[in-house]
Fe2OG dioxygenase domain-containing protein
Amino acid sequence: MEETNKSVLGDYFTSAMALTESGVHHVPTRYILPPSQRPMLCPSFATDTINLPVIDLSFLHDPLLRPRVIHEIEMACKGFGFFQIINHGISTTVVKDALDAATRFFDLPVDEKMLLVSDDFHKPVRYGTSINHTTDKVHYWRDFIKHYSHPLSKWINLWPSNPPCYKEKMGRYAEATHVLHKQLIEAISESLGLDKNYLQEEIEEGSQVMAVNCYPACPEPELALGMPPHSDFSSLTILLQSSQGLQIMDCNNNNWVCVPYIEDALIVQLGDQMEVMSNGIYKSVVHRVTVNRDIKRLSFASLHSLPMDMKISPAPKLVDGDKPAAYGEFSFKDFLDYISSNDLTQRRFIDTLKKNNL
């Protein structure tokens, strides 16, 4: 497998991590964005005129306070498709152990990581760089490992065996985020006026993809991005970031807003499946990732969705004569097929699903 991967990819595969470690002083041409797409790097915690929602999730378990939290979630989903959560129930130890495992993985020699490299978007475990390093017109300053994570017992044996702690530490974090996701789906369903158990069985049988990202220090961060503007295919994405770097699009003012780093908080982002299920009441959040001159940033994006081949469509209760179905149905597999042969920077996948009445 190693020799095959090297022969197929070796001529043009250079990871962002390898470039940083080589001591480059300038961003290679293939990473330089057109001037109109380059990031305006904002200072730490600068959100200027906007207050991003932070929700204390522990209050969901108090019957008297739960309605207030549901309302806060509704306002955040309508306003941004995004919120941060504190007191979410995942222990600091589990988070730190997962960050340690990821750090150890990305610090492995290149040859070790190349055992998992692939440009096949359907593979359940793959290491890579940029988005699709074989077809990207502009490359993005990140390395990643992605792996299916639910049910854990089905996939964990395919995960990296090196570093030795990876399966155990990352597995605990993956299981904890799966539990958290179920709580969030219940709350978001309630906020839409649906039964809290709407799609709960499908979600339990669904998929979880853990995208573990490494954004190395970049010599010219004003010229490059870690990830381009996009929305996630998922119902929800639960994101852990080790430092600031995420930006979301404020659709009201059509500008980019830096998401502050809050210690021990997690980020919740609505994905395309949620936009379709809500019939456009909630929108998937468009986001991108900036890079830093001095700091290596890690993030874990835990993407939760329905089973691979299951189609999602607007909830019947949210469709009527005044608000007809605004989207066609789609599955996780449909999304993978799309990104395998299309440039997400040119057209978002969800735009292919929208009907004329939207």
